[in-house]
Specification:
This protein is of the alpha+beta class. Helices cover 53% and strands 18% of the residues. Helix 7 runs parallel beside helix 20 and helix 21 packs across helix 25. It starts with a helix and ends with a helix.
Length: 767
């Protein structure tokens, strides 16, 4: 094996370019594969483990206490199919009057529990202690990490309720409540609902779970069930945004693996073909066929292992921020969304195994080649496959350099096809990234207006800012009077209780010219009445809702029955959109927190901003910037990977042309001896790859368009309108068709110039 290693090490030194190409493409593949596996694992595994550890509730059901007694609810725990149950727990809704801790004003769902343990929904106490007496409150901490210990002892004063002091923070993977108090304290809050938590013996599907809930609640008075929250909805909420990134990462991971296979196969096949004499010499001095194969596999192992290790390290470094963005705004609870150690093992072992398996096929050709034939073949065996095509091309009026170059791919059709496939994948990624960037930029320009938009914040004492002196109506009147202002939209918000078991959401109320400056509605229509709301795809997925569904919002004893009439392109994952008339019914005291001011096309944005700031010291205008972290991450990652993949495809062409010129040294010397100039040699060499590059480019465009459509249709956190998906136009497609030619020509230029500088004497001397 020492002889094998010495021979393979010498081969690595002779083929530095091929070694670099393999290492680079394996590095890119390692990064994308690790990110895709990290998202796939984090989308389900962490939630399932944390949910099982807490014995989370398969279903949390809220009942109207006025229609069903606690005794009858307790009896439902003994119904067939129920594995375990907890409750009934008194459930009340108190009001946070203003910003408190990390929470904004609105509803807070409070449940009375004697302790955090139990057969279902075993809460994990993070800091402090459990509530044991009157006036004590334990808050649910929804995200990873830990709460600020200084928040212990903070007091909540809610209208119509006794003061409540924070004594601890706990986590519930079932999201059964926002806070917990003692059962006695819960009764003092005048609860209108009772909560039951169920685990069923079989809850493998949503249909089966619905049947279980129907069976448990059968026989209860009509209208007794006010809401149900199941663990499938919680799991969708947990992974909704991450699953939106998954098709994107998976697609680029597959492209990287395909390029790896093509480049490795091309390099090894070329190394075997161009090294026939070397193979013959190895066999002549005693190398067995298996040892010859081992030389070529060991030659690949060096760049493969280095590329895999470096790619895994890079993937590990960027997986944390990528997962952070994918799970931003998601209540992760006790679930850890970091990449597990087994993912690194899969990349470190799986990718080298795939590369070596790919290399084994062309390497076996060296195994079968007899030593005498290999030595007599010289640098490569003679081939006449391209002569017939070249004879036909020579009969045309094309310059001889062009006709010779156009016929070269037919001499090595297998190598030419592998190179074309690599170029086609490069063009595919360029086409995909071009379309993706166009779609995201179109989305970023939505509602921006030709003159731009100002986001005018309203100061508040809770936020440490000066509150406005003028009233809401006067502020809006003066904003509309500012020169250059086209439209004004006021936004207020509150946190309300969503029908179900402890769910709370933010409700944004809009007044004014919302239709002119808002995010587009991709399905249905914008809310127009007090009972209509709209939300983004993430909100709907996290709550198991769809356009046309009905639900109930509750705040301070008021109830508002609403229907989802539209789906926004994106929207906030935790908020829904409603009209100002809905605000009058649900949260009449909610004041505007900002005004969106759209400027006319010819308006002076700087002057308008100065004029708005002069209206009231409590107004804080800032330019509204398009885009967000999610879309920036997608476009940034796609652009970087496209550049890398295009470079690798160009290096693959470089490798092919380099092998061709080495094999045809004698032919080049003969052509130069009869008068071919260096410029004609460059033209001939570049022509040999320009045609296949054009064909590969034409093949890669439809693949890129299909990949773009697949991605924009399955990005879970944004639902793009059809107008934003139609981003390809004829001039753009023509430029993309030339991308394959550009990749091929760039890859061929350096070896073409090297061939042009080859002297006749040197060629004849080597012969």
């Amino acid at each position: 094996m020492s002889a094998v290693w010495s021979a393979s090490r010498a081969a690595v030194k002779r083929r530095r370019v091929q070694t670099f190409v393999i290492g680079l493409v394996v590095l890119c593949s390692s990064v994308t594969v690790l990110l895709a596996l990290s998202l796939l694992s984090a989308a389900s595994g962490p939630f399932d483990r944390a949910f099982a550890q807490q014995r989370g509730a398969h279903a949390a059901v809220a009942f109207d206490s006025a229609k069903v007694s606690d005794e009858r609810l307790g009896a439902t725990a003994r119904r067939p199919g129920v594995e375990a149950a907890a409750g009934p727990f008194a459930q009340a809704v108190v009001t946070i009057p203003e910003d408190w801790l990390w929470m904004g004003p609105g509803a807070l769902t409070v449940v009375g529990r004697a302790d955090p343990a139990g057969p279902v929904d075993r809460l994990e106490l993070l800091t402090g202690r459990w509530a044991t007496g009157p006036g004590e409150l334990v808050l649910n901490w929804p995200v990873g990490g830990g709460p600020n210990p200084e928040w212990l002892g903070r007091e909540l004063r809610s209208p119509g309720a006794p003061p409540l002091t924070v004594v601890g923070f706990a986590v519930s993977m079932s999201k059964s409540a926002n806070a917990w108090v003692t059962p006695e304290q819960a009764r003092a809050l005048h609860p209108a609902s009772a909560q039951m938590l169920y685990r069923f013996t079989e809850a493998g599907s949503e249909e089966r779970l619905r049947d279980d809930v129907d069976r448990v609640t059968a026989g209860l008075p009509a209208g007794a069930v006010t809401g149900t929250q199941d663990h499938f909805t919680l799991k969708r909420a947990f992974s909704a945004q991450a699953e939106g990134y998954l098709p994107f990462m998976t697609l680029f991971g597959v492209l990287g693996l395909l390029v790896s296979v093509l480049i490795v196969g091309n390099v090894v096949s070329g190394a075997v073909v161009s090294g026939y004499r070397h193979i013959g010499v190895l066999k002549a001095i005693g190398f067995t066929p298996n040892q010859v194969v081992a030389v070529y596999l060991a030659m690949l192992s060096v760049p493969t292992v280095l590329g895999t290790v470096l790619g895994t390290l890079v993937g590990a470094l960027i997986s944390r921020p990528v997962l952070g963005i994918a799970f931003s705004g998601i209540e992760t609870g006790t679930a850890s969304v970091e990449a597990g150690p087994w993912l690194f093992a899969v990349c470190l072992l799986g990718l080298p195994a795939l590369v070596l398996l790919t290399a084994l096929v062309p390497a076996l050709r060296a195994h079968r080649l007899p030593a005498a034939r290999a030595i007599s073949a010289g640098s490569a065996p003679g081939t006449r496959r391209g002569l017939r095509v070249q004879r036909r091309l020579s009969g045309t009026r094309l310059p001889r350099a062009l006709s010779l170059g156009m016929g070269q791919p037919f001499a090595r059709p297998g190598r030419a096809l592998l190179t074309m496939a690599a170029v086609a994948l490069g063009v595919t990624t360029v086409t995909l990234t071009t379309g993706l960037t166009g779609t995201v930029l179109a989305y970023g320009e939505t509602g921006k207006g030709e003159g731009g938009t100002l986001q005018v914040g309203v100061g508040s004492e809770a936020g440490g800012q000066t509150p406005p002196v003028l009233g809401d109506a006067e502020i809006e009147r003066r904003l509309r009077a500012v020169p250059g202002v086209a439209t004004v939209t006021a936004r207020a918000f509150t946190k309300a209780s969503l029908a179900g078991a402890g769910g709370t959401v933010f409700v944004d109320f809009y007044r004014g010219d919302r239709a002119d400056s808002a995010e587009p509605v991709v399905r249905g229509h914008r809310p127009t009445g007090p009972g209509e709301v709209a939300a983004g795809p993430s909100f709907l997925a996290q709550h198991g809702l769809a356009v046309g569904d009905r639900t109930t919002l509750q705040l301070e004893g008021r109830r508002l029955h609403v229907t989802f009439v539209g789906m926004l392109a994106q929207g906030n994952a935790q908020a829904l959109e409603a009209t100002w008339r809905a605000r009058d019914l649900l949260a009449p005291r909610a004041e505007p927190i900002e005004y969106l001011v759209r400027l006319a096309p010819a308006a002076d944005a700087k002057a308008a901003r100065t004029a708005v700031a002069a209206i009231d010291p409590g107004l804080h205008p800032e330019p509204r910037e398009p885009g967000n972290a999610a879309t920036t991450t997608v476009v940034g990652f796609a652009t970087v990977f496209t550049v890398l993949l295009s470079a690798v495809a160009a290096l693959g062409v470089f490798n092919t042309v380099l092998l061709n010129t080495r094999e045809r040294r004698r032919d080049l010397g003969m052509l130069k001896s009869i008068g071919m100039t260096p410029r004609q040699v460059v033209l001939m060499t570049v022509t040999s790859v320009a045609g296949p590059g054009l064909v590969a480019g034409l093949a890669g465009i439809p693949l890129g368009i299909a990949a773009h459509r697949l991605l924009v249709d399955h990005v879970g956190f944004i639902a793009f309108p059809e107008s934003m998906k139609d981003v390809y136009h004829l001039p753009q497609l023509a430029a993309l068709a030339l991308a394959g030619v550009a990749i091929a020509v760039l890859g061929a230029l350096l070896p073409a110039r090297s061939a042009a500088r080859l002297t006749i004497a040197k060629v004849l001397h080597n012969e």
